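Batch job 17 of 40 flagged for manual review because the log was empty.
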Amino acid sequence: MLRLLSAILLSALMTPTLAAAQDASVPSGAAQDARSSVDLLIDVIEDDTARADLIDRLRASGAIDPAAAANQAAAPDSPSPDQSFGRRIALVTQETAENFADWAAGFWAQLSRSPRVFDGLSGGEAGVLLDALKDLAVVIAGTVGVFLALRWFGKSLYSRMSASARDGGIARTITLFGASAGIDALIVLLAWAAGYVLATLALGDFGQIGIRQTLYLNAFLLVEMAKVAVRLVLSPSAPSLRALPIGDRAAAYLSSRISLIVGVVGYGQLLVVPIINSNVSFAAGRAVSALIAFAVLAFAIWLVLRNRKAVTDWMLDTPPAPASDTAPASDTDTATPRPSRRGALVYLAQHWHWAALAYLLAMFVIVLIRPGNAVFQTFTASGQVLLVGLLGFVASGFLSRLMVRGVILPPGLSGRVPLLQTRLNSFLPKALFVLRALIFTLVVLLALNAIGLIDLRGWMVSQLGLRLTGMILSVSLVLLVSFGLWLALTSWVDYRLNPEFGSVPTARERTLLTLLRNAATIALVIITLMFVLAEIGLDIAPLLASAGVLGLAIGFGAQKMVQDIITGIFIQFENAMNVGDVVTVGGTTGTVERLTIRSVSLRDVQGVYHIIPFSSVDMVSNYVKDYGYFVCDMGVAYRENVDEVKQAMLDAFNELRADPEQASGILDDIEWFGVNSFGDSAVMLRARIKCVPGRQWGVGRAYNGLLKQVFDARNIEIPFPHQTILFAETKDGKTQNLTVETLKDA
């Protein structure tokens, strides 16, 4: 850029010098060929006289500053890759420091000239405003009168809406909230239309309206619509429609103060300043605009300092101090109960006023150094910050109340998918955290944009801003779609596993559906991660290739895990066991509680929980596959008749089958095997009963109890071990005497 400017300047200043050089170097009467500007410049540089004349002309015109030229010559070169790292860092820091010093000097110069903004006041502004007020008195009185009358009627309507919303659900509350906003806006529009009708038909020439009346009516419409937005959030006349969790006194206090600020800024910038500009001067208009801004900022600082403790108590949800005439914002006379604030919010609640004061002081500086139009733009941006902050707080409060109350699904849907409500309620805190972070970020960005530290609109339309915004939206959409798919999949599995709806799932269906849910969840997480990385801008092709190589390496290094997975797949294909089965795996017997692709979890009869990898399983013994047998090995004395014992066992089975509770677990008649073996003191007789899977142990215990009763009744001996006591003898066969004494009853 510097070379281009130098070339242009040289072309403008060296024309006489070039002409003289050409006159001196070209013979008279010779034909001159067309020559380029570069050739002419070379001729001037080569000619000492022409070059000196050019330098003198440049110095005389101020194009060359000797001091600047000396500084430029002494200045270090820009950072270059050939320079050392330390030198490059030094050059960058030097440039940063010089730029900051230049900015600080320019800022101080602007701040030093800022008091001159009030030099435009001439002293006649008050008279101009009084004359304008006389011209507008009838329109103001008519518009305000109609507005107050309609507002009086609307307040009674708002009270009835609040009572209806208090007794209704959330759908009715949202509907009434929107209706109240529409009615409030309609009241403003009717009053504005009435003012136009009055100004057009009753004042001045029929069918014409003055510029001052137009300024006032337009200001009235914009200002009162802004107040509608304030009342929509605070709802001082309708507690049940209030978006913020504050009391009636606090809502009325905030509504009146914010409406006052909006009115002063709006009517001042939209009505007073244009009148001063057209009747006094633009300099006076800028001075009046600055005075309005200073008054509003001073009032805002006073509000922050006066209510800092009350706002802190409200944010911490602690009882307020004794009431004062300021109606503190922590008033909780009819406020909606809120959960206590904890964590980082405690620090924010205790020091919020410092951030507010810093922002207001920055606004003071902006008012001083910027022209009048920028003041109004800054206040408009501040209003946007306040509006976004209030809306964000409303949304955060709504989500907090929703989280406390939780998502309540219809009974029919909750019965079909019992875990859906639990999953949604577990998702709410995470969604609330993300939304709060987004709201906080948005408010901070708007605040920085309002005070001029960043250009949010320019950044949004830039290529980087568009790309970042698109990336955030794409990633959010991918995450939402993935969560929806996961929620639908798990809900469908829950519905299929619910025995109260549809067909009762078998044990195999329960196992396979559980494995499907786990495998689909893992696959969905991996696919979602890949999509997110692709949307961020990372090339996932190398990642996929690296994942393949990594998988091969893991396959060699973790052969045991691979063996677990392969064995688990074949076990599932062969339907060797399912959740709820009683099995013996790896020498451990218990009930299958969990079955994954690489391990099985058992709970034994003592309640011990075992996790057994499939690589250590060489045999699976399933006790509840299709049916089960109770095998009865009954020992009787050698003196007993086998046929009598057989009949006793058959009679005990018939008595067992007569019991309805036990009969439901018996599939067939008792099978008699006969004498199975001869023991040391008993003859072992065997029989077995075919039972429903899993019922054989209960049926066997009941059958053993009946056998004991029948054997006792028929005097069939069930042998038990006997012990013979021998006394020591001498070599001649004698032993000690044993005296037996019979105890007689007293």
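Reviewer: the log was empty due to a logging misconfiguration, but the result itself is present. The mean pLDDT is 75. Unflagging and moving on to job 18.
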